[in-house]
Amino acid sequence: MYFKALKEDIIDGLQKSSNIIPVKTGAAFLRTVWVQAEGDSVKIMATDSSIEFVGSYPAAVEQPGLVGVQGKKFSELIRKMPPGEISFTLSEKDGNLLIQQGRRRYKLPTNDASWFQEFTPFPEENVVIWSGDYFKEIIDRISFCISDDDAMQGMNCVRLSRIGEEKVEICGMNGHQFGLLQVVNQDVNAVLGEEGVLISKKYLSEIKKLLTNDEIGFNISDKRLFLRTGRGKESFSLPLKSYQFPDYKNFIAQYEDKFSSVLEVDKHALVDALDRIQIFNTDNNRSVFFEMKETELALCSQGQDIGEASEMITARYAGSLERIAMPTRVVMEILSHFQSDTVRFQFSGSFEPCRIEGDDDPSYMIITMPVEVTEDTYYTEEEVL
């Protein structure tokens, strides 16, 4: 094998492939990046046995071939080399990969090509074109509601499912929060199938690394999700999960008539106030009290040896609930995903779920739980006789 390629053409693919392979593992082939030169391009391929990445980049191929090298070292070396043409030669004498750029010469050991296993091909039938930055935004708006614990099975996944013939519903939950977003996309709706799909949270960060502002090709097989850049240069696939996702529709219906206390407040004013009030949160008390009146919202927090804080902001409120404790940082994170200037909190009780929506965020809602706070008395006055 002998080919030449520009560093600037291949480095992005090398970095993406090396990000996939594990840093340490007992299986050497899982630490391998495969390089295949043929025609007028070079393929860079990597897998961690679940995720598969394939990138195709321009190259001047004089002798085709396939070679596997230690991915992290290979990527790091090319990254630190200056821009320009680099030549790659597979030595027939000792099987090493010789890398040369001007007066720079390097030698890397290789793995036996018999270790190579064909990657799952991208299914060309029924490919859907989707906006990469919009798909990334969807992931961001739901992924923070998903459990990090693999043992939670369905709650460790984001779910994409069909709603009617036009909409796609994306949702996730972790036991304390539930996020739901509906978007109109007939093409994606059509490829999802009746049962929808589950994508493990651990794969979402890798998906986001591939996504740009460009369009992507999106497709689904029985067992895998496939993404491809608009020009077909890079493809990425991962296994889908077969867990049972919790029945959230009955849960929502159960509380639909109970969200009777409604607070409307300016999102920016609330976030600014919470940002100051969280200074007074402690490890034992990470909440803020909402004290609601018809035209204003009082926010307060206190902690032993920390002090106390209270702020008043304009709001509109109707309901019977007067006071509730909400997790400060959680509320701030939730609000960061809303585009609306005004957000609406719908409370069902002091210790019952709270639904958050915004007029400029159609078909998007977050349900979160308040916290139960035990208020301690730090100072007492004794009657002096």
Q: Keywords, please?
A:
DNA Polymerase III, Chain A, domain 2, disordered C terminus, elongated, alpha+beta, 12-stranded antiparallel beta sheet, 385 residues, 40% strand, 9-stranded antiparallel beta sheet
Q: What is the number of beta strands?
A: 26
Tally of separate domains: 3
Number of helices: 8
The percent range for strand residues is 35-45%
Structural classification: alpha+beta
The end-to-end span amounts to: 98 Å
How would the blueprint of this fold be written?
Blueprint: E1 2-6, H1 7-20, E2 32-38, E3 41-47, E4 52-58, E5 60-63, E6 65-70, H2 71-80, E7 85-90, E8 97-101, E9 104-108, E10 110-111, E11 128-131, H3 132-143, E12 157-163, E13 167-173, E14 177-184, H4 186-192, E15 197-200, H5 201-210, E16 215-220, E17 224-229, E18 234-239, H6 248-255, E19 261-266, H7 267-277, E20 287-292, E21 296-303, E22 307-318, E23 323-327, H8 328-336, E24 342-347, E25 354-358, E26 364-368
Antiparallel strand pairs: 1-5, 1-7, 2-3, 2-6, 3-4, 4-18, 6-10, 7-8, 8-9, 11-16, 12-13, 12-15, 13-14, 14-26, 16-17, 17-18, 19-22, 19-24, 20-21, 20-23, 21-22, 24-25, 25-26
Helix pairs in contact: 1-2, 7-8
